[in-house]
Every structure is written in structure tokens, then in C-alpha cells.
Prior knowledge:
- The structure is a single chain.
- The protein has about 300 residues and is α/β, with parallel strands linked by helices.
- The protein folds into 2 domains: about 25-75 and about 195-295, Vaccinia Virus protein VP39 (Rossmann fold); about 85-185, no CATH class.
- The chain is built from 11 helices and 7 strands.
- A 7-stranded mixed sheet has the order 3-2-1-4-5-7-6.
- Strand 1, helix 2 and strand 2 form a beta-alpha-beta unit.
- It is elongated.
Amino acid sequence: MILDKNDRTQYGIPYQGSKTKLVEKIAKFFPKADHFYDLFGGGFSVSHYMIKHRSKSFKTFHYNELRPGLCELIQDSIAGKYNYDVFKPKWISKERFDAEKETDIYIKIIWSFGNNGHGYLFGPENELYKKSMHQAVIFDEFDDVMKEKFGLDRWPNHLTILGKRLFLRRVIKNRKGELQQLERLQRLERLQRLHFTNKSYDEVDIKDNSVIYCDPPYQGTGDYGNSFSHKKFFDWASDQKNPVFISEYDIKDDRFYLLKTFSHRTSFSQSDNSKVIEKLYGNKVAYKIIRDALNSGKNSIGSN
């Protein structure tokens, strides 16, 4: 998949805390190596970007995610399970979401607000309208809401699923694009150089001559359902012989060096679209690589 300049946010799957808005800027700091490790892989956005745009910089790519089910969801997406030709997503009500979110990773992630795995995607005030739109777009079923509220009882001829969504783009905002992201991963070449693991970060076998990227639960925020020791993580990252790059809000530990500050907008709640500051840090090995590269006059660290 090659994205155009107006579609730079479609990496991986929808996921809370995804680095899809920042990955292009973050990846510029990664030097070339034999192996690339995405140890807190989450929604696959960083691994996806690296495979597509830095494929010549590494021999193998390693996606790791501890949270149950995510590896399978991403692998199923790559395998084509969510292609519209074979997958017609049924409407998931709030009742079904609450009942099945802990046993179905697709429902838990795709049908939760902000893809946080906790709260239902829609509020009670607009669930009825969203269901009507969903049934019309996916199954060509037009109920009274579509007919009376939107004046529609059929689509113009020969519209694709995307065409139907675009036809309703002024009223479909929250749902637009998420299932398309799952389908889009099918276009990702199933490289034998891509490896999946479902382990804790410190259980992954790190090979020599590697670059390690970590996007752990941020200090002072939710832990994505798992308890997490930042002290243990920072001790581990400091001891690594390979360069470790860490995304965080703030690290007050002099074993790590601030490499870059990023400002962007977040939308973790329906009412919040505020600007946040995230930072990229490096362990001593990473900092030395960056410093030496700058001293040598190189314009960039890694390239495709």
C-alpha cells in the first residue's frame, strides 16, 4: 500500500494510543540495522510504516504485543479476513458489545470509542442513527430512519462500499474508515521477514545489531488492562546493548536522553480534542548513535 500525501494516517488498525500521526517523524531517528523490534506493537502502525517505508533498512521486523488477541486480529487482517468481498460486518449493539468485548477482540477494539477496548463506540443519543447508516451502507437495507431522516431508500447505481460511505460523509464521521483500515492491511505484502510474538517485552529474544522501539503505557495514564512497572521497564531499557527508542510524555531518569518533542491533537473522549505533547527518548546507546550522526554532518539517521 502506498499512501498519498493526504492519507498519511492509515497505518495499522484503529487503536488507542496509536502512533499513526507521529510514526513518520519518529522513524527518522531509527538507524539501519539487521533487526527492528516494535515491542509494544499495539495497533501495528509503527511496524506497518517501517515495513512499507524502511524495508531496505532492516532484514527482519518483529512485532510484539502482550495484549491477548491483537496479533491474531492483525494477522487475520493481513490474510484478508476483513476484505469487503468476504466480510460483511454485522451491527454490534451496546448490549452485544458489553456481553462479548472480553471474548472477541474485533468487537473489543473496533466497536469501542477511541478503540480503547472499554466504552461502546456510540452514545445512546446517536446509536439508532448509526445503526441505520450501517445497515444501509453494508447491506443496502433502508429503514424508516434512513427514509425519513435522510430521505434515502436506495443508493445511486454502482456505488461501492466506499462510495456509499462518501455519499454519507457529512453524517457518518465516527465510523468512517475503521473497517477500511482492517481491509487495507490485506494489501500488505506478507513478508517472511515479519515475525509476530505475544509476550511481555522482556521475554522477547533480542538479537544483536537491532533497533528497539517501545511505546509502553505512559506514566500516569491507563495501562491498557495490564499492570505495568515503569521502574522495571526503565531498568531493562537502560541495560540493553542495542539502541532503545521510547515514546513517553516525560521521563525523569537521567539514563535516558530527550531526542525530540512532538505536538499533536488527541481525541480520547468525545468532548476532548486538545493538543498534547509527546516525546521521544533514547537510551545511552541510541543517544550516542544520534550524536555521532549529527557530528558527522549526516542529514538523517536511517533511510530506505
